[in-house]
Write a structure and sequence with these properties.
Blueprint lengths: L5 H11 L5 E5 L5 E5 H17 L7 E4 L5 H13 L2 E4 L9 H15 L3 E4 L7 H8 L4 E4 H4 L15 E6 L9 E5 H12 L12 E3 L6 H13 L4 E3 L2 H6 L2 H9 L4 E4 L1 H10 L15 E4 L6 H11 L9 E6 L6 E4 L8 E4 L1 H5 L10 E4 L3 E2 L4 E6 L2 E2 L6 E6 L6 E2 L7 E2 L2 E11 L2 E7 L4 E3 L2 E3 L1 H7 L6 E13 L2 E10 L7 H13 L5 E5 L14 H10 L10 H23 L1
Parallel strand pairs: 1-10, 3-4, 3-5, 5-6, 9-10, 11-12, 12-13, 28-29
Antiparallel strand pairs: 1-2, 7-8, 8-21, 13-14, 14-17, 15-16, 18-19, 18-20, 20-23, 22-23, 23-24, 25-26, 27-28
Helix pairs in contact: 1-2, 2-3, 4-5, 5-17, 7-8, 11-12, 14-15
Length: about 575
């Protein structure tokens, strides 16, 4: 019988202890730390004792601000052990934007209504200022303070209990706390494992560098590994960004079968990995190179496939997928027995809401068909649209959320969820054309900003995946502004190249191109660019690159945070 809660799934994996399976954590030097599932169960019970001493009770929320280390899973499953609700939040990795981090994350803590925040010695040095900005009593607890406690009896959750809270991406507005039940996250992990339903020997050994505060890393990687149970190798995200080859080396060394990533990661690997970085690797076992979380570029996938084909990578491995936080994660998957599907469509017809096949038009990749138990509809207002008509994507399935943490309802029509995304169906497969709130309307026609942004990827001097196309009203109507982060060397005619490339790909040209220093574009916690916030900052004159992180400034930030934490503890005792 399949476990129906995360607690039951972890204990089931521990009881089976299949071939000593578990989670393998790599550090920057690729040194592994191994945790079997019995280890994780034992450690979670001890950490749960520490959380209980800190005042955590069943139904309470526990904020987790930890990097990709064994401590994360220890604390996450300790909260589950107590019947509490873990809320993973991202650590302050961009030290040049600490004020922005405090402002955005404090709002998440307010929505979470948590009274305990668990962190480590490193991130904990900056948590005092975060809690101070939250303006509510929150106890900061280090993992090291929890490890010496005695184990406490479990309070096993019910399938209908909230298993965790994950925040929506927040690309078009403030992030919202999506409350997901055990039944919902388990059902989504199960359909991900159905990726090869007819292969009885399928072993989903995984490798991931995705952050564990993000649904693709946690729900898409850790939960299926535990449910199977199988082994998973985890790489710190910052290690991947510094050296993308660490991902491919891990896939080869640990025979990874499945590994998801956003589109930018495939482009980054193609651009930066040198042959000497991956000498002797074998990628023939990588059967599912899932591409999701942001617009999928057929050109990027082809380039990645061709670049690493000499190392055994199968072209069929590149698999576009689609999902969202409000559905726990996955909704549609491409097929693994053929090269990903893509077609070209007439740009002018796309702008008018119809996807007409064309020999020379805009190329879009299919993100596949609905997973088992899921359905997808394309609607305009309340009308369901036919094949190749563009509208809002509505999803129905077993893991669709019921409510946000504050009990506010999501945008639903009965059991159907309005995803907020735009797209169309063609031959039963889903194609994404953009976010409804991000659509640019120029001279009465709709334009997808992602199409404009992707058009300039690959240009010399342009950072791949680091541009934002936004619309701004003027006395001449809505104009298109294109913000582009650059890298050296910057060609002298880069403005002209960008304009020419966009016009060739979309039939329109940006009214203004704004070149930016690296790291200037504001992003969500999962790395997605916040387009509307980019425009707001530009208008206010505050669109600036991160501040230089000098030793003096860092020491000052740590001292200020420590003082805030001391004051908070002193006031709580009073």
């Amino acid at each position: 019988m399949t476990p129906n809660t995360l607690f039951a799934a972890l204990h089931h994996a521990a009881d089976r202890n299949k071939d000593g399976t578990g989670l393998r954590y790599l550090d920057r030097r690729e040194t592994p730390t191994w945790r079997t599932y019995p280890d994780i169960v034992h450690r979670a019970a001890r950490i749960a004792g520490g959380l209980h001493e800190a005042g955590v009770r069943p139904g309470d929320t526990v904020a987790i601000v930890l990097p990709t280390t064994p401590a994360f899973t220890d604390v996450f499953f300790a909260a589950v052990h107590l019947g509490a609700i873990p809320i993973p939040l991202y650590p302050p990795v961009r030290l040049g934007r600490l004020d922005e981090y405090y402002s955005r994350t404090s709002k998440m803590l307010q929505q979470a209504q948590t009274s305990v925040l668990v962190t480590d010695g490193r991130a904990g040095k900056l948590m005092g200022s975060l809690v101070s900005a939250t303006k509510r009593p929150i106890r900061i607890v280090r993992v090291s303070d929890l490890e010496g406690a005695e184990p406490v009896p479990a309070c096993p959750p019910k399938p209908s209990d909230i298993a965790m809270v994950q925040f929506s991406s927040g690309t078009t507005g403030p992030p919202k706390p999506v409350a997901l039940t055990h039944e919902q996250v388990i059902s989504n992990a199960k359909v991900i494992l159905d990726i090869e339903p007819d292969d009885k020997d399928f072993c989903p050994a995984g490798v991931t560098w995705l952050p564990l505060y993000h649904d693709m890393g946690l729900i898409g990687c850790i939960f299926p590994a535990i449910l199977y149970p199988g082994s998973l190798t985890l790489i710190p995200p910052e290690a991947f960004l510094a050296d993308p080859a660490i991902w491919l080396r891990a896939l080869s060394r640990y025979r990874g079968v499945i590994s998801p990533a956003p589109n930018f990661a495939y482009a980054l690997c193609t651009e930066r990995i040198q042959d000497e970085d991956i000498e002797g690797i074998d990628l023939s076992g990588w059967r599912f190179a899932l591409n999701g979380a942001e617009p999928t570029s057929p050109e990027t996938m082809r380039a990645f496939s061709e670049r690493f084909a000499p190392y055994g990578l199968r072209p069929e491995a590149l698999t576009p997928v689609y999902g969202l936080s409000e559905a726990a994660l996955a909704v549609t998957f491409g097929t693994s027995d053929q090269v990903f599907q893509s077609h070209r469509f007439c740009p002018s017809d796309l702008q008018n809401g119809i996807a007409t096949l064309s020999d020379t038009g805009m190329e879009l990749a299919s993100v596949g068909r609905p997973l088992r138990g899921f359905s997808v509809e394309i609607r305009h207002d309340s009308k369901v649209l036919g094949d190749r008509h563009i509208g809002r994507i509505w999803a129905h399935g077993p893991s669709i959320m019921e409510r946000y943490l504050d009990n506010s309802p999501p945008p639903k029509d009965g059991e159907w969820l309005d995803t907020g995304d735009l797209g169309f169906l063609h031959d039963g497969e889903l194609y994404i054309t953009g976010r409804a709130k991000d659509v640019l309307v120029v001279r009465g026609r709709n334009h997808d900003p992602a199409t404009i942004e992707v058009a300039i990827d690959g240009l010399s001097g342009v950072r791949t995946g680091c541009s934002a196309a936004v619309g701004s009203l003027s006395d001449k109507g809505e104009q298109i502004l294109l913000f582009v982060e650059t890298r050296k060397p910057i060609p002298g005619d880069l403005h002209t190249q960008i304009t020419t490339q966009v016009r060739a790909a979309t039939g329109i040209a940006p009214d203004e191109v704004v070149l930016l220093n690296p790291g200037t574009l504001p992003r969500t916690s999962s790395g997605k660019i916040r387009r509307s916030e980019t425009l707001n900052r530009w208008k206010l004159g505050t669109l600036e690159p991160p501040q230089d992180v000098s030793a003096t400034r860092l020491i000052g930030a740590v001292a200020k945070s420590a003082w805030s934490e001391w004051v908070g503890r002193h006031n709580s005792r009073d």
